Amino acid sequence: MNRQIRLAARPVGEVKPENWDITSEPVGEPGPGHFLGRTRVVSLDPAMRGWLDDRPSYLPPVALGEVMRAGSVIEVIASNHPEYQPGDHVVGTFGVQEYVISDGRGAMKIDTSLAPPSTYLGALGMPGMTAYFGLLDVGALRDGETVVVSGAAGAVGTIVGQIAKVKGCRVIGIAGGPAKCALLTDELGFDAAIDYRAEDVRKALRRHAPDGIDVYFDNVGGEILDAALTRLAMHARVVVCGAISQYNNATPVKGPSNYLSLLVNRARMEGIVVFDYAKRYPQAGQDIAAWIGTGQLKVKEHVVSGTVDDFPETLQMLFRGENVGKLVLELA
Amino acid sequence: MNRQIRLAARPVGEVKPENWDITSEPVGEPGPGHFLGRTRVVSLDPAMRGWLDDRPSYLPPVALGEVMRAGSVIEVIASNHPEYQPGDHVVGTFGVQEYVISDGRGAMKIDTSLAPPSTYLGALGMPGMTAYFGLLDVGALRDGETVVVSGAAGAVGTIVGQIAKVKGCRVIGIAGGPAKCALLTDELGFDAAIDYRAEDVRKALRRHAPDGIDVYFDNVGGEILDAALTRLAMHARVVVCGAISQYNNATPVKGPSNYLSLLVNRARMEGIVVFDYAKRYPQAGQDIAAWIGTGQLKVKEHVVSGTVDDFPETLQMLFRGENVGKLVLELA
User: Fold this and answer.
1) How many DSSP H helices and E strands does chain B contain?
2) Does the first or last residue of chain A, that is N or C, have fewer Cβ atoms within 10 Å of its Cβ?
3) What is the pTM for the complete model shown?
4) Given A58, A255, A268, which is nearest B270 (Cβ)?
5) Number of C-alpha atoms within 13 angstroms, CB side, residue A280?
6) Which helix (H) or strand (E) holds A100?
7) What stretches of A209-310 show up as alpha helix (H) in DSSP?
8) Three-state DSSP class for A325?
9) What is the ipTM metric for this complex?
């Protein structure tokens, strides 16, 4: 049987157990040109919260009753597809389920001798690509600039900061709690870390970025975005990647009160959606893999072992800030 | 005697009569390399409200007791400066006062046979330059796009819309009241006008810009900015020029709740400060003068005749939305 997580009801505010259905259906047979895979690792992403709302966005909402959308790595166990053989590992948007039948569209074979499957959901997957193109293209980073990243201990933030260090920048990470902050400075090479739970972010930014912020990479929105806006350097770039502090709001999103700093500082704020850069993923993947190889980029993954039944609870960890690095659910 | 308007106390919220002092001092003699001028026309600009607050911005605040900063056109009446002769008209940031002594720095002689003095404070002055560079450089306007401008019947808005029409764009103006809206469509060639006092702006934008907004030029902020953000086309540009709806707030600025539309639509929001383009003013001035000459750009000016004593009351007209086009105070 194929166990699956389906959207039962749209959440208002926080996602609750009753928003999900756990269902089972017989595992199908792959037809001509298709393969059957067994899920090895499921990605958990803050963006998932947005996919649950019935509103237009960069992807259509997950439909009620549909298997929850998720990136995952599967292992092929049967194939009628000439390019996929049993034992191959494949990454794609296969959903939260134990078994997957695919014709290979939107999927990509991965080399698990180079990196473990989970890394293809993290540093070598969407979060890595998002960090790379968000920082270098949308952020138009120049060597030696001052970079601030929020959600700095998360899947995207850890990579943003390390790429910025590769580029010779001064990097300040904003994260919640002393353990995450210590990780950033002691292990990942950030120049400074700000614990937003313990410090006044605005004052800390003034101290750590006295000449202002050239690139602010925002994963969180809310009060932290507003604090960063007060400290922009002239011609700064604010990369809008996410707003995890606002995703569970039942009330309207808190808009950035200090957005007129964009005017005063001739700065810009611009969104990144990683899919736009699909043609250039290979280039980014090569760069990131090279930096991993030289030790300039350390991969941080938070692996929860369990079954698809653990998906709802594991997803909550993102919104409670309990993960460090890329959060994945590894299926036994 | 030289009558002057000075800042007596910083306003909280709306500017009130008690925020100003009206003073008189003897008219000075121009020293070597200086000239003496008599003020003919004073510019009134929404940005003035920001200059009264004691906070860092793109210009230092007007100091308490200082003559109020303002652009104006003066006529030279005595000169020890080789390049300025009595009878010359000169535009500069000369302040709200009847007489001015200047060494010519930051000033520019104007040709009143080409356009009246007031136009050098409007279409051929800062508002014209702001519209031109905001729309074409920051907005990166491309021919045939859909442009929405708020504060559309104001000094900058009237020019933004007409330049966009010159560029073959579809132009929708947002303004307050039926008279301003009729001006936009009947006289200035806008394709549509939205009366924000009478209509639901979001719905009206859906009707008038069914394929979304490519460039939104914002002079007002607040609810109208938020409405425009919901209707952005992919890769839209939001030009942040001003936020007149927020300038008199005693409470924090209302941040744009819908800013995540920048992410969904890979759009950007960027500030314009016209001084950055000073080297290119001549080019913009030539273009605008040419469009005025061909009748493609109609100059709208709202001339109040009076004395410097009328400055405080005239300034209020901007915040009450009582002006149509560029507001100036012409001294008798």
Assistant:
1) 9, 15
2) C
3) 0.94
4) A268
5) 15
6) strand A99-102
7) 222-229, 261-264, 281-294
8) strand
9) 0.93
